[in-house]
Amino acid sequence: MHHVSQSLVFKIFVLIGLLGLIGPGITFVGLLGQTIVPSRPELHPVSLALIPPSPVPFGQRVQVKTMIENRGPRGVSGAGPFSVGFYYRLVGDPQWTLFTQERFDLGLKANEMAERTVEFQTSLLKDRLAEKSEVLIEVRVLVDFKSEVEEQDERNNQLIAGLSVRTSIFGLPDLSPVNIRFECASLPPGGQPAPTPSISPCPVVGLVRNIDFILITTNIANLGDTVYEGSFTTHITACRVVDPRTGACAPIQQRNPNETFEEDAKGSETVETIERQIPGERYIPACSQSAKCVARQVSFPVALKDGKTRPAGTYRIEVQVSPKGVKEMDMANNTLVAFYTLAGPELRPTSLEFRPSVLREHGSIDVFVTVINEGSSNVETPFDVQFTANGKTFADVVQTRLNVGEPMILNAKLEADKAALKRDQIITIQVMVDPNNTVSELDETNNIIESKLTVLEAKPQLAELHPKALLLNPLSPVEKERLGSTFPQFGQRQIVRLTAQILNTGSVRAENVHVCFAYRATTKAVWQRLESPNCAINNPDPPLNLDANMPADSKGVDSYADLNVDALNPGSYEIRAVVDPPSDDVLDQECKPADIRFRGQIAELDECNNQIVTHMLLLAPIKPDLRVSSKVTPLEGVNFGSPFTLKAIVTNEGDDLVNIPFKVQFTAQRLEDAFNFSGLQPPPLPQVLDTKTIFASKDQPFLPGQSREVTITVATGETPPLTPGVPFIGRPGGYNFVIVVDPDNVVDEQDETNNTTATAGPAPVGPVVNPNQVGGYAINGPDLAVNQNGICVRPAATPAPAPTVQPGFCNGLKLQYAAGESFSVTVDVQNIGVQIARSYNVQIRLCRGQTQCDGAARFVTKTVAMPPLENGRMATTPAQEFSTKGLSPGNYQIVVDVDPPTPDKPFGNVLEQLEKLNNTSALALQITAGSDSGDVPPIPPPPPSPCVAPETPNVDLRVSSLQFNPDVESIARAGKVQVLATVQNCGGQSVPNAFQVQFGYRRVDSSQIVYFSVQTVQPLGPVQATTIQADFDAFTLDVAPGDYDIIVTVDTLNEVREDDKNNNQAARRITVRNR
Q1: CATH architecture under which domain 939-1075 falls
Q2: Following DSSP, what letter does each residue of 607-662 receive, concatenated?
């Protein structure tokens, strides 16, 4: 066996069947193979028979019978329609002649076979036989000769048979190879052939890389009329096919039929001849004389991995029988031809990329190429990848291996100066894979990829500075100091070192480069600059110099700054480094390349890539954080005298555990004192109710996320409980309970400011009538209350009217008296609490001016004793008479104190919910000069005064508009007018609660006001206004003709705390006519 090349891997895709050809003549069997593409039909002729067999006499009609098969995979639709062509030609003539064709209109289904028979007229050879006694021709069947069906293999669609046409036939023997069979075998481990190797038929689709050799077997039969006596020799010849369609080989393959098949250094195509002589075969009976044709089998082993491998490609296999010294009937049928394909590696460049995408004069680019092996075997032979520019090689890369389906990316640098490339020159960049053909492939024409580009003008000769990296040490997240932490491995770091790595990729050296650092919170807009050595006002210290043409993958030059995080709050921060910064006025603006304001001190190619920003997460120290996560009090409060429970849930919301005990303190403070409504200086301090201890230790720590419940029970009443140490509150009212966790600060926490939690807050505007307004907790008891409208002043001679239904309706009210007149005062007192009030006193004082009613300002004081008052009820004091004799004209006020304190009872006789806020009220009174009797014209209220912005920081209610609808100056005695009053809050705080507004009238020459409507107004925000209305019906009210003032009074019950109560009234005049 000849040695063959190992440098290529073969893949056999063919299996030759037994030809049904018996008779003298020449027989060619075409068999092609290629990689099977799934899901396609596969048409090919199975047999070609000439009846009668060769040789035939001139004039004989020869039947040409062929069997055609579709061997496509199951499940694939059939092939068709298609046509089959039948050709003939003289041996040695390159031109085929079509003598007939057959049409398959319905095509062939998968795995279906069909037979066709046509006639060949030997009379077509009349002109040739006129010159000689014998003509040798070839008859060919070509399936789908019009290429109508796309198949898996387009190269195995033909069969060729030889035919000898003679003017006379002699009775002679005739040897002919009648079939070819391929069988494959593999060597056992170790590479030595076994005595009896395992041989099996080659698959239609096989991988030659798994096969060591192929056994080619042919059967030799005597197709003549007499016995063949003598020896013969069988030869096998293989050559690479240039045109698989015609089976033609390259001329170089035909020059020496006996040359040993090898692959030379340049991979040229050569011919291999294998010869074997069969000794002792001297008697072969003729098939025409035997019931069964006896054939002699001859086998030829062809090694695929015996030292060398065969180059990939399509091969023409020719088996030739050479009788020795015996004359035959037909010398044309001694040859049998088959075709097969060996598939190996298939190298192909798939992409070509330039980085950067443009090449400038004096510049360079990196050329990247992707190469893939699309064949059926790995490349194990070294091969070159050649890079050229305009045909000149600028790089040659050697590769040693490439597996099937594996992509490989190679790159080479093209430098314009080394390649002598000039501006505006168009160049062709070509990459050729395996230019020396060291790897044998089926397709050697797809190994080149190329592209063109133009050499652009050179970049300006400038520096090009830009930061490559901005590093933090320690890395983000950064933890602030952690005193007392149980995780010491994190250490204590208050300084973060910022390091910027700077590159100069330009062509000019840069000296005295400034690098400035800044930081800001992620939610902020303003950057805070840091001090750094390279950000000096004049020259950096030390100087920072950067050489030109620094590689992009180099580390660069470091510049640093230190960020002190001691004063920073935990959160997310941005860190910025700017190389060669512009002026401060544009530093924080978006860079614009064409704007010279964004240029620094050094001229650069790109002024807009000098900034780099990174982020840092600053964490709070890993410490515990104790706080009250929830607190529980009874929703509806509790009645005075009954106990109640306070419960606090204490949670460790930090990141560390607590392993020492700590306390939880409960305190209570009345709302008047908590928000200093009483005006005492200093206000009373909170009362400590109880202190509980939460126990924690190293064995049982208070872990992050854990919660503990702390509960106390508080007793209420006038006398403390007999059991010592029980938390006790001795007065009813609205309370603010404050819970303090760790009041002694024994636990080091993340946040020491969140250890206090209160049930009430923030401080409201105006008096707190209901503790729920501020989240307070109500201990309900009696609550005596009086307001300005509960004070009724009438002339002393006027009989007291019937009791009013509710306070504020004081018919006959008169607030202006001439010196010497007397008046009486009654006070309406309400118990707005939830318990009965024991007996109490009501103190009525006449005071000068509107200052505090004490000392020289107080003229007369009268005290009235009142019986107990049930909750929800009202009581009116007996009338108390006051005289104005001896009083000078001026402004006075009636001051009323309900249940005033005494030396032995500082909170009065009744312990109330609200002691100071609603127990005192006052009413303005005017005394004029004149006679000792008669009614003096009153001073009218101020006109309405609207506001557009807050005029005081607190609440300020007023009537901002007072109109009539219709807008008239007078009405008939039987008529009426609609009064529209706009109430506005001209203060900077919201009104906390609803309040009352009263509509009244009085004659201009009288001080007595008659009220005809009262309405409730909901709370108002700052500068907010609302309009209410009431009808002034002169007929219904029985108003006598005359001039009247329509008066609107805001907050008649004094329910809203204001700095100025003097602007709560407004008036408008109207005349009532007889008709």
Answers
A1: Sandwich (2.60)
A2: SSS-EEEEEEEEEPPS---EEEEEEE--TT-EETTS-EEEEEEEEE-SSS-B-S-E
